[in-house]
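Human: For the file, kindly provide a plain-text protein record giving the amino acid sequence and the backbone structure tokens, at your earliest convenience.
Assistant:
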Amino acid sequence: MKNHYRIAFALSLVFCISSAHAQESDSAHVQESDSDKGKLDLSFTLQNMFYWRGAPLSVFSTPEQTPAPLMIAEMTYAKKGFTAGFWTGQSFISSGYKNASYYVKYDWGNFNVSLWDVYTYSGVAQNRSRDFFNFKNAETQHFIDLDFGYKLKKIPLSFFIATIIYGRDGNYVGEDYQNRYSTYFKVDYLLKVNETIGVDFFSSYGLVLNNVDGVNFYGTFDSTDSHGFTEFGLTGSKKFQITPTYSIDLSVGAIASPLSKRVDGLIAIKLL
């Protein structure tokens, strides 16, 4: 199956599932409730580094490019289970990580599916185009990520799986560019200590569905494996109530990545 057929199939899958559930909702609810009305939201977070699926990211995540503190902002519009969002991460240093991404997501019950277009415009590789509108598979700086998540109802255990289905996750085999389809699987357990304190315990595994060159997208420059555990970690979080209507969230994490051969400490303050 060609790459563009894979993308069309993924988009069709998301659309069909969403449409089916929307029809069920329309037949069950004749009048629109307050929860059905659209909601626009903004969030803003400060982090000591950008850490993504087992790897701290700067420009190319090389020893010369140490991950730097950054600010993260997100804008979302949600209605009837659908969410459309824009996400951006901006490093405090000019040579640091910079990203502008957008996505669509659909939630029903404890299950969700999302499709992301992730675009990093810092440190574009020589064989990739700086043109945002270039979506040719072997040239584009974008990658398309298809994600599925599920939360159990009776225990605070969640599962997440994501596959990069197009773009800058591949290499040439002869003259033929092939995608690796790097896939990430994560299990997370949230322990609620009280109303304001929680601890996440999680582990994840990365692999490729097409072993093009013996590596996968989730490792750093030290990684030379096509599969392996990407994370073993825990993150503690606490909500601080500043005023009756305003609070901030502080989280501190420690993560070991066997695949990337490193340990990292994470600090994040969510201000909005």
Notes: The longest strand covers residues 228-243. Residues 4-34 have pLDDT under 50 and may be disordered. Helices lie at 3-28.
